[in-house]
């Protein structure tokens, strides 16, 4: 049974047909059928899927990856000692940190402390020539949004915003209804904001790096 929480790129036919039906157009039976309906809808889907993923830090799309160090880089940014390549499928880099220092983040087992996500110690870095220049001699880890490819666990809210964006393009390109296109584009932006808010409400508030000394002081005060 297919996972209902995963939208495969091959399943974009479903989203496109929903958008075509919603705008009063004839759905297509197969992908790449050379119809105007498919060309317009497919182009809109591909463009907006990438754009919407780029515009937000979607937790359903985030990935963690150990970065690969660049051997003998011709030049290193001033103040830095190591250079790492971005992940090959990186659409947007959210954060990067030293792998060894991230292990110092203390797990929270104390019921008296509000359970929150702890972030690793901040690492200064610069993106130069699409590479990460930093001071991480013992390895670095990246949190990033990948390009849309294959099966990705898109949320229902993300799919709704994407479908509305496709419908806006259909109204403009196929139905030649600019007024409706602008209206649906506004609806898509509202749906995008709602989807972003809903995903944020799923997680507790994040805090900065929490040291063992801070944990001990907190327990003593308690």
How does this structure look, described?
The protein is α+β, with helices and mostly antiparallel strands and 222 residues long. The protein is elongated and about 60 Å long. It is built from 6 helices and 11 strands. The termini are far apart. Helix 2 (36-55) crosses helix 4. The strands form 4 sheets. Strands 3-4-8-7 form a 4-stranded antiparallel sheet, with no helix packed on it. A 3-stranded antiparallel sheet has the order 2-9-5. It folds into 2 domains: 7-57 and 149-200, no CATH class; 63-147 and 204-221, no CATH class. It has helices spanning 12-22, 36-55, 99-102, 156-173, 178-200, 212-221; strands spanning 7-8, 63-66, 68-69, 82-85, 90-98, 117-118, 125-128, 131-134, 140-146, 151-152, 206-207. Strand 7 (125-128) and strand 8 form a beta hairpin.
Count of domain modules: 2
Distance between the termini: 49 Å
Biggest sheet statistics: 4 strands, antiparallel
Question: What is the general shape?
Answer: elongated
- Evaluate the radius of gyration: 22 Å
Q: Summarize the helix and strand pattern as letters.
A: EHHEEEEHEEEEEHHEH
Instruction: Extract low-pLDDT stretches.
Output: 111-116
Class per helix and strand makeup: alpha+beta
The share of residues in extended strands comes to: 15-25%
What is the average of the pLDDT values? 86
Helix-residue proportion: 25-40%
Strand order of the largest sheet: 3-4-8-7
| Number of beta strands | 11
Number of helices: 6
């Amino acid at each position: 049974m297919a996972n209902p929480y995963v939208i495969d790129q091959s399943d974009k036919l479903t989203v496109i047909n929903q958008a075509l039906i919603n705008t009063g157009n004839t759905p297509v039976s197969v992908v790449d059928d050379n119809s105007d309906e498919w060309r317009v809808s497919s182009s809109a889907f591909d463009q907006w899927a990438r754009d919407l993923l780029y515009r937000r830090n979607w937790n359903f799309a985030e990935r963690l990856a150990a970065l690969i160090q660049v051997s003998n880089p011709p030049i290193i940014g001033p103040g830095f000692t190591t250079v790492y390549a971005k992940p090959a499928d990186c659409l947007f880099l959210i954060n990067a940190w030293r792998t060894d220092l991230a292990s110092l983040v203390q797990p929270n087992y104390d019921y008296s402390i509000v359970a929150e996500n702890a972030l690793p110690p901040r690492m200064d870095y610069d993106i130069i020539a699409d590479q990460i220049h930093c001071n991480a001699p013992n390895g670095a880890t990246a949190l990033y949004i990948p390009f849309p490819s294959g099966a990705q666990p898109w949320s229902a809210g993300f799919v709704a915003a994407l479908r509305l964006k496709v419908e806006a393009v259909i109204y403009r390109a196929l139905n030649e209804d600019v007024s409706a296109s602008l209206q649906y584009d506004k609806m898509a932006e509202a749906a995008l904001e709602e989807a972003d808010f809903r995903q944020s409400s799923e997680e507790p508030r994040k805090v900065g790096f929490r040291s063992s000394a801070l944990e001990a002081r907190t327990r003593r005060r308690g």
